[in-house]
Amino acid sequence: MLFNELETMLNRLVKTPLKNQISVDFDHRKKIFRLSAVIYRTHAKIPSNLENYIKAREGMAFRPHKTSYEIKDSTVHLVQELPFRWGFQPALRSHAVEFWRLAKRCHSMLSEIASE
């Protein structure tokens, strides 16, 4: 029993999004920064209940900013679009840290949904 719990904890730690796995892109036409991180990955097909959860939210965005899920191959990405304004604006680093924290919470939520 203890070994199974330890193995589950280690698997969750290994699969948790890392700060250095966040990609940051800039779209100069839309004037947005696009943050993206893999929050769920599997070698097999994504579980159907998780896929249904993601597809039910397709085309929808939630706060903060414009945040959504994307499915690519056998991975689920969390994507966030930050508006860019000329002049003073909050540091991108603080947005990236908050995005990483959100990605960790979404990762644990999606892992629970997939395990059901």
Distance between the termini: 19 Å
Sequence stretches where pLDDT stays below 50 over 5 or more residues: none
Give a count of the beta strands, DSSP E runs of length 2 or more. Answer: 4
Give the proportion of residues in helices.
40-55%
What proportion of the residues form beta strands (DSSP E)?
Answer: 25-35%
Provide the CATH topology: Yope Regulator, Chain: A
Name the helix and strand elements from N-terminus to C-terminus, one letter apiece: HEEHEEH
Molecular shape = elongated
Biggest sheet: strands side by side, in what order?
1-2-4-3
- Number of structurally distinct domains: 1
Cα-based radius of gyration, to the nearest Å: 16 Å
CATH architecture heading? 2-Layer Sandwich
Mean pLDDT, to the nearest integer, reads: 78
Assigned CATH class: Alpha Beta
List keywords for this structure.
4 strands, four-stranded antiparallel β-sheet, alpha+beta, Yope Regulator, Chain: A
Describe the protein's topology.
Blueprint: H1 2-15, E1 23-27, E2 32-41, H2 48-56, E3 66-72, E4 75-83, H3 92-115
Antiparallel strand pairs: 1-2, 2-4, 3-4
Short description:
This protein is α+β, with helices and mostly antiparallel strands.
Structural notes for this entry:
This protein has helices at about 1-15, 50-55, 90-115, and strands at about 25, 30-40, 65-70, 75-85. The chain is of the alpha+beta class and about 120 residues long. Strands 1-2-4-3 form a 4-stranded antiparallel β-sheet. A hairpin with a 4-residue loop joins strand 1 and strand 2 (about 30-40). The radius of gyration is 16 Å and the shape is elongated.
